Amino acid sequence: MKKQSTFFLLSLMVFVLAACGGDEKSSAMKAYTQTKAQVFKQKATLSGKVSNEKGLIKSGTIKAVDLKGNVLASTEVKNDGQYTIDIPAGTVLPIELKYYPDVNTQDAEEMISVVAYASMTGYDINDLTTRIAKKAKELGGYSHRNIVLASESMVHVPDANKTSTGFRGDPTKQYGGWH
Asked: In terms of CATH architecture, what is 36-156?
């Protein structure tokens, strides 16, 4: 969950910077979002957990697949829902991590997570990552921009807390004091 939160916060920061405007900032943002494909220069070990709405999934197969459908590596999900997979050096990103349930796994569906950043090594695979990947693909592919847009469309965060139900403090100071 921390990794998803980190990705969401990073996405939100990029969105905020893009919204700031200004020629210098928008030029820098365009350069950032239109970067060339990233590559794993060395063997990369990716890890994470596999879960669905019912909890951790304790069996199945994870395959790392490039956008042409070539299988780069595969591994089995451990009994604690964790996986570790080695991606070969020289792998061009993005790639997909695809979860395939085995015949003994009940109520499990195929799920995916997109690996688009060479600097990240933790990728959980779950219903949310699957929806984000599918939405990004619908938007035109696994570009940084599409992943950010897909992530934002999947997470529902209120603009502001406009009620006092969560307020814990001096009520005379809430909203700038008594009105």
From this structure: Sandwich (2.60)
